[in-house]
Design goal:
By secondary structure, this protein is of the alpha+beta class. Helix content is 35%, strand content 26%. The protein has a 3-stranded antiparallel beta sheet. Strands 3-4 form a two-stranded antiparallel ribbon. Helix 1 crosses helix 2 (52-66). It starts with a strand and ends with a strand.
Length: 78
């Protein structure tokens, strides 16, 4: 994954690399499975179910990468 800084320091764009394509396809399959529970696994082995709202965001991001899209995020500082 590459992070490209845009014209503004607060805008970041991310594009999936070709070598990651198969991993994203597998992630998409898992995230599409009805009733699937996705967990985050920490380096120490700790596991936590991710909330449904994060599951939805992750699914949209993975779908965009599978389609070869570039995602841009703007950091908002409060």
């Amino acid at each position: 994954m590459t992070i490209i800084l845009g014209n503004s320091a607060s805008l970041e764009s991310v594009v999936a690399q070709e070598k990651e394509a198969q991993t994203f396809k597998e992630l998409e399959r898992i995230l599409q499975t009805e009733g699937s529970k996705v967990k985050l696994l920490g380096a120490n082995g700790e596991q936590i179910d991710i909330p449904e709202s994060l599951h939805q965001v992750l699914h949209h991001v993975v779908q965009a990468f599978v389609k070869g899209r570039i995602l841009s995020f703007q950091k908002i500082v409060k």
